[in-house]
Amino acid sequence: ANWMQPDVGDRLVHLIAHEYAHVQQPITEQIDNPNDGTHTLLETALVEGTAELVAELTSGSISNAHLLKFTKGREAQIEREFLAEMSKTDLSRWLYNGVGTESWPGDLGYWVGYRIARDFYSKAPDKKVALHELLILKDPQDILARSGFAARVNP
Question: Model's pTM, two decimal places?
């Protein structure tokens, strides 16, 4: 997936850090097929977004760095669209859709999930507890509420 990051060394370091986070997430054992209609966009985006946050904390960058260019200047629009669809179980517009198109790149749910996880983590007084809560992901709606993300997007 050379579209993720142009340098293969960087890409592997960040991707390995991302995938290692999934090993720490109990929910990944419950999800055989994320597109089976039993998991919401919010829940699945937080699974991937937390892995992106762990990648950044571990390696210095998210693994889907290619999304940063597309999202620049479009943050509010993308975030509002995500919030409007976050309870849906059809993930096809947001996750696991590869490169995507020029007007809507694939895997934007990773980027939004990362921003929610990052907001939650940055607000937390105890970073270890916050990271544990993100990895365990007992209540995605609670994480969203406590992140302040929705209130920031829709004041």
Answer: 0.89
